[in-house]
Amino acid sequence: MNKNLLFDEIDKLISLSWMQEKQFVKYGEMRYALLGYNDLDIAKWESEHGKPVLDTRPNDYFSIQKISKALEAKISQVPKEIHVSSPLFQDWQVGVKHSLKQIMGSECIMLLKSGTEANLIATDMLSHKNIPVYFDKHTHATTRCGFNLARGRMLESIEVFKKALNRLEKSNTSEEDIRRIIQKPLLKILESVGFYSFNHNDYDDLDEQIKKHGPGVVYTEGLFSVYGDLLNPEIAEIAKKHDCSLVIDESHSLFGTATSDLTINRTLPAKADILTASLSKAGCSLLGVIGLQPEFFEKRYIYLEKKLNRPLTDAERERAKLSLFNLFRRHTIFVFSNAPSDIEESGLQARMNFLFQNPERRAILLDKTKYIREKIRNAGIKLFS
Ligand SMILES: Cc1ncc(COP(=O)(O)O)c(C=O)c1O
Question: Beta partners for 111?
């Protein structure tokens, strides 16, 4: 359908007075591009047309970006702000980390500057030779970017083969023999870089692929950024059935945008090992987070207990937990890139407090979403979820 027609159709069918009533006044970037208006013309457009329009640009799902408490908190940090060279040196910001830990049900939290950083670290840390990676076809671009980073790291070992090749060439080995000697291990390396995409939310496809390539890491999203649909809980079940680790990007579902729970993970029959999220969506802050979940550490404890052939003591468990956490904290992005800003952190804390004190915001968002989706569907426009 032509975009112009689509917007006209939505306009006709969605009662804009309802939106005004609910103070859902937004304008759309695409619409402005289509009409040739720019940002400065909003008021003009609205007065000429006598109605507000839908804004598709911001991520402010709960309409909390500009609440006074967040603005005040951010302003109070301005005179104090220092750009810390690494999150390793920034051990304050404990309030936000504690709140996120509670919301996400995590054992350990890594606060980062963006969801991109969170996905790059999570994908890179969990991608190893011989461990297959499975990802939903609709998984966010930043996760794929991380896979490419991991692929690159794995392919580094090809350098070792190049050196061996040089040595063989110097030793007057015949070309045919060189090919024979090198080809097999080289192919093995290439095959070990196993990244497999499965059809979107398709339980059977994932099942088949894991049966073929073996247990590994499954990456998916809580609320998909592509079509706005929710994770099929059976994906989590199949991942766990095959003893895979499960990583869920909760960028769009964190704080309860789509369910009555604060994360999608809480609603699943089998829980994730790692959660990642951009806090720029419902949290309206230029931050990201990785949550290392109890299930992630539990795997490590089981492994160590098998190795030692006895249960771990509390102190040993604590040490094992810290060493695994520190492994993540040694990632290049965590060590060598700037720490998250205190200004953003204080804004996020104020918004989270506000959300806890005003849980009805979640119900309002779900209500609006339901209404608009119904109207769009009634207009004969196909929604993919
Ligand atoms: C699902 C998902 N993951 C990660 C990101 C990246 O987050 P950020 O913009 O904070 O880098 C986005 C942003 O669009 C996203 O939609």
Answer: 289
